[in-house]
TrEMBL record:
Pyridoxal 5'-phosphate binds at G119, S120, D249, P307, T308. Its cofactor is pyridoxal 5'-phosphate. The gene is bioA. The keyword Cytoplasm applies. This is Adenosylmethionine-8-amino-7-oxononanoate aminotransferase. It comes from the Bacteria.
Amino acid sequence: MEAEDILRLDREHVWHPYAAVPSGVPAAVPSHVPVHAVRAARGVRLTLADGREVVDGMSSWWAAIHGYNHPRLNQAIRDQLDDMAHVMFGGLTHEPAVRLARMLVELTGLDRVFLADSGSVAVEVAIKMALQYAAATGHPGRTRLFTVRGGYHGDTFGAMAACDPVNGMHHLFSGVLPSHVFGPVPPARYDEAYLAELSSLVAAHADELAAIIVEPIVQGAGGMRFYHPAYLRRLRELADEHGILLIADEIATGFGRTGELFGCDHAGIRPDIMCLGKALTGGYLTLAATLCTAPVADAIGVLMHGPTFMGNPLATAVAGASLGLLGERPWREEVKRIEAGLLDGLAPAAGHPGVRDVRVLGAIGVIEMVDPVNVAKIQDIVMRQGVWLRPFGHLIYTMPPYACTPDDITTITKAMVTAATSG
């Protein structure tokens, strides 16, 4: 199909995420954000249907950490396809799923692995685990969660309820979601008063809390904020003091993105339940996992959840290959190099009148603007410089593949700074 045919049919039939229907409203409408057709992806570049080539500064929503069309990951899917593409996981099992579960246990130090379809579903499973655990251990009244504002845990109902209810994207559903307990947005710097406030809030609600759920160190889609590891350590202590489970949502932070293998590693703690997704398959197929300790699993017994495509052989095969590849490549050095490039490249934006903050952690670079960004305008600016980004809210940010070269990072940061300072 020609590029114009793809886009025409897209306008007529496709509903894109976080967008209105029809998505093909006239380009003259100020809020219109155009859709771009992709023909191919290789390495860290996307080839658009109109022939343009852009560096993907988003890793396909933070998942394609190895880049695209990696021969080893391609081969893992081909090899598995010759055996079976799918088989139900109820009453059956298979080698790719078992191998992946063992790898995840070794990486996380947790004991049991429940394979799910997506990050949001992994969070739903984690919440179910916490509620069933509370009931099974004699606390049926513990039906709420404690979390902090500024967080994001997914778009399904249980996950939405744990997202920021005031500044998040799910305010339309506030009247029908469960009511949880929220602490303030965690500060970037160490603050004794904030630690005291966390302690007071958890203690005041301990009898009704089944779990504490947070994104370790980095709050992702809620605002790309980084916070001090001391707060995560204190939440671990509070969970232990009050007999509450700690859920770490590592969907965005897992597999090296922050400079450590997992966000929890910055604080030197282990959660009771961990959610993984996004980079788990290297961006190839949808797959997530919810892991927990043996005591949690033993107390729960039967977990009442069962996705149709749970443990899909193709997805688990490529996930195992991706984790194997991650273990072999010098990802720490790659992420440190990317971090240095982002720090250097984004520095010129700091101090500009329209810029509120510039921050970098691992392979995450953020320019926070004073005013909300014009997504269509920003994308037009960066794409003319050969970069694909998806800004939101007040943020122009990047989470590039680890395979990016220093020149790729320079290309990304120059485009971001130009977009932030273009007026």
